[in-house]
Amino acid sequence: MEQELKEEAEKLGILITFSHETMPLGTAGPLALAHELLNADCDPFFVLNSDIICDFPFKEMVAFHKSHRSEGTLVVTKVEEPSKYGVVVYDSNGRIEQFVEKPTEFVSNKINAGMYMFSPSILDRIELKPTSIEMEVFPNMAQDNQLFAMELHGFWMDVGQPKDFLTGMCLYLSSLRQKSPNLLHQSEGIVGNVLVDSSAKIGQNCRIGPNVSVGPEVVIEDGVCIKRCTILRGAKIRSHSWLESCIIGWNCTVGKWVRMENVTVLGEDVIVKDELYVNGGKVLPHKSIGSSVPDPQVIM
């Protein structure tokens, strides 16, 4: 990940500085660890959960944060079944009044979307120890009238689990179709929303899509069918294989005439030999699969 981010930093002409936990510090402790970095210029800063996907509204967050002039901005998103979540209750100006965990009666249908903007003064609230920002910091900020909610428009998904990752990918591709359709791939055999890196190679008589993301240096041989999948850098899908609802890790090889489905996930450098069926397998890195996996299971 560090190498990937360094490459992105070079492309964008920016500096990325890493603050590394040597022990788990929860969701707030890492801010105390990075106190000097975050407090260097007294400007507000973003904090983002790494397992969400949406149209990140950075400019809107900055404008909203400046408008209320308080310590924190918390982005919220609407859900259909609030009883499954902890919900955020706030007034007409966005000032957060309270947090209610899995309410049994309706009090709000807005939940924490995992995106924040903070003024550096929040760092005075956090000690360098394992701390939950949601449970130990936010309630005190709300009590002090220092935390405001900004409503998110558009799609949002927690992508921390493989099945949710694939759903999030589909939502992202749909968003690209609406906002930047020129980024989606168009050629013979492409169906629906498909994102293909320019360095990837796709063979003849393939059917790719809908809802497929193909990463750099991927090789897809002739006659392959792929639907609702993410194929990561350097993977090779050999001829006449059929993949649906799969995540194929870096530098994997999927053999000829293989069928994989039902949220099958291959870790890095996994080899699936020819003519196998994999149903919902979760395969750890650097493994070779020589027999079919008819039922969902973790392969260590």
Task: Produce a short descriptive summary.
This protein has 300 residues and is of the alpha/beta class. Helices cover 20% and strands 30% of the residues.
Count helical runs: 6
Strand content: 25-35%
Spans of at least 5 consecutive residues whose pLDDT stays below 50 are none
The separation of the N and C termini measures: 23 Å
From the spread of the alpha carbons, the general shape counts as elongated
Mean pLDDT: 96
Biggest sheet: strand arrangement: 9-12-15-18-21-24-26
Count of β-strands: 26
The structure class reads: alpha/beta
Most strands sheet: 7 strands, parallel
| Helical fraction | 10-25%
Structural features, described:
- There is one protein chain.
- The longest helix is centred in the middle third of the chain and has 18 residues, at 162-179.
- This protein has 6 helices and 26 strands.
- It has helices spanning 2-12, 29-33, 35-38, 58-68, 133-143, 162-179; strands at residues 45-48, 52-54, 72-78, 86-90, 96-101, 110-118, 147-151, 156-158, 194-196, 201-202, 207-208, 212-214, 219-220, 225-227, 229-231, 236-237, 242-244, 246-248, 253-254, 259-261, 264-266, 271-272, 277-279, 281-283, 288-289, 297-299.
- The strands form 6 sheets. A 7-stranded parallel sheet has the order 9-12-15-18-21-24-26, covered by helices on one side. A 6-stranded parallel sheet has the order 10-13-16-19-22-25, with no helix packed on it. It has a 5-stranded parallel sheet with strand order 11-14-17-20-23, with no helix packed on it.
- The mean pLDDT is 96.
- A hairpin with a 5-residue loop joins strand 4 and strand 5.
- It has 300 residues and is α/β, with parallel strands linked by helices.
